[in-house]
Amino acid sequence: MSTLKPDTLPQGAPFAIGAAIVAALRAAQALDGATVLDNPKRASDLQTGSRIVFFEDQADKPIAQPGQSQKRTYGFTVGVINRTTNDREGAHTDYRAAKRVIRNCLPEIIKLVQIEGRGLVEGDVLYRLENLDVGGGLVLGLFTLDYRDPG
């Protein structure tokens, strides 16, 4: 007879958190008409469409505290590409909408993991990527989320 609790997140917390965010981005009315990509595999995936929102896992690191091995920081980026007539304005508008969607999906994330420390933090925001011409406006934001892994 096993005394281990069932694993509530068999793919891991980062996957579950990312899936919740991508689902919220895809359902967002403010991003209606935009293509939402989950961890695009190739730069060519970002070349099709006039409005693209993409989510990418970046890192998942332990928070160095003795006896607190389950506390972690998950990092991810959310980017938008806009190739409409007003591409710069459109990119900023779509990024702001995406950022609001991420904040508003925190109740879903809390169902998955316990949020710790600083919680959700928006970090650096970039407007260009080296060696990648997106053919329009680009806004790319780095986010981190401090959490406790239930597993």
Could you explain how this protein is built, in words?
With 151 residues, the chain is an alpha+beta fold. 26% of the residues lie in helices and 35% in strands. It contains three helices and five strands. The chain has a five-stranded mixed β-sheet with strand order 1-2-3-5-4. Strand 2 and strand 3 form a beta hairpin. The two termini are 19 Å apart. The model has no long low-confidence stretch (mean pLDDT 90).
Helix and strand topology:
Layout: H1 13-27, E1 35-38, E2 51-62, E3 71-82, H2 87-104, H3 106-112, E4 114-126, E5 137-148
Parallel strand pairs: 1-2
Antiparallel strand pairs: 2-3, 3-5, 4-5
Q: Rg to the nearest angstrom?
A: 17 Å
Measured by DSSP, the beta-strand proportion falls in: 35-45%
Number of strands: 5
List the strand order in the largest sheet. 1-2-3-5-4
Number of helices, where a helix is a run of at least 4 consecutive DSSP H or I residues: 3
Largest beta-sheet details: 5 strands, mixed
> What's the end-to-end separation, in Å?
19 Å
| Global outline | elongated
What is the average per-residue confidence, as pLDDT, rounded to a whole number?
90
Q: Helical amount among residues, as a percent range?
A: 25-40%
- Provide the succession of SSEs: HEEEHHEE
Structural class computed from helices and strand pairing: alpha+beta
Q: Which ranges are low-confidence, i.e. pLDDT below 50, for 5 or more consecutive residues?
A: none
